[in-house]
Write a structure and sequence with these properties.
The structure holds 2 protein chains of 2 kinds. Chain A has one domain: Immunoglobulins (Immunoglobulin-like, Sandwich). Chain A has no helices and 11 strands. In chain A, the strands form 2 sheets. In chain A, strands 2, 4, 5, 6, 9, 10 and 11 form a 7-stranded mixed sheet that branches. Chain B is mainly β. Chain B has a single domain, classed as Immunoglobulins (Immunoglobulin-like, Sandwich), CATH 2.60.40.10. Chain B is about 0% helix and about 55% strand. In chain B, the strands form 2 sheets. In chain B, strands 2, 4, 5, 9, 10 and 11 form a 6-stranded mixed sheet that branches. Chain B has a 5-stranded antiparallel sheet with strand order 1-3-8-7-6, with no helix packed on it. The chains are: A mainly beta, B mainly beta. Chains A and B meet through β4, β5, β9 and β10 of A and β5 and β10 of B.
């Protein structure tokens, strides 16, 4: 059964440090999404790509967050510098046009 | 402003009964709506998709209705089981392609 793979599953670091989260989408899916989930805000879309091109990153704080797809098998989300308010679970999902999204199991990030 | 509302309080029901979860939205005109299930520590998992021209969709013990006049979707689980205990998220198509905006979810607990 094809799955979206996210690494690391957990990350604890001090504020000011750079954090990189990685995602391997399902082969054949042309759309990749990055979400952040917190108790207060729920699941929020940060950015998404279609055919590796960024389509919308309006949900992402531009000054510290960046998202890229260096190739079709890898998507990355970076935070530099990290802040305590960035603590959340970050999910990657992949899909194709108007089809359901398949989620990874997330990266639980804690910024001390 | 755009809003998606799901029951914020947890729903507790007895095994064997029908669970009904509600998703209301304002200032959206979604082409389709999806329901996902999320277990603790896991990513959301797709359950059902219903399009704007469909009134009802079924899959095994699950049923979804979609009323675009009321701007509401109802999600039913019949003959509920403790294994159905999870958080259920509704998601609206919100911008073309398969970009989704998620509700905050309803936690369902099915008791013996």
């Amino acid at each position: 059964d094809a799955r979206v793979t996210q690494t690391p599953r957990h990350k604890v670091t001090e504020m000011g440090q750079e954090v990189t989260m990685r995602c391997q989408p399902i082969l054949g899916h042309n759309t990749v999404f990055w979400y952040r989930q917190t108790m207060m805000q729920g699941l929020e879309l940060l950015a998404y790509f279609r055919n590796r091109a960024p389509l919308d990153d309006s949900g992402m704080p531009k000054d510290r967050f960046s998202a890229e797809m260096p190739d079709a098998t890898l998507a990355t989300l970076k935070i530099q510098p990290s802040e305590p308010r960035d603590s959340a679970v970050y999910f990657c999902a992949s899909g194709s046009q108007e089809q359901p999204q398949h989620f990874g199991d997330g990266t639980r990030l804690s910024i001390l | 402003s755009q809003k998606i509302e799901q029951n914020s309080e947890a729903l507790n029901i007895q095994e064997g009964k029908t669970a009904t979860l509600t998703c209301n939205y304002t200032n959206y005109s979604p082409a389709y709506l999806q329901w996902y299930r999320q277990d603790p520590g896991r990513g959301p998992v797709f359950l059902l998709l219903i399009r704007e021209n469909e009134k009802e969709k079924r899959k095994e013990r699950l049923k979804v209705t979609f009323d675009t006049t009321l701007k509401q979707s109802l999600f039913h689980i019949t003959a509920s089981q403790p294994a159905d205990s999870a958080t259920y998220l509704c998601a609206l198509e919100s911008g073309g392609g398969n970009k989704l905006t998620f509700g905050t979810g309803t936690q369902l607990k099915v008791e013996l």
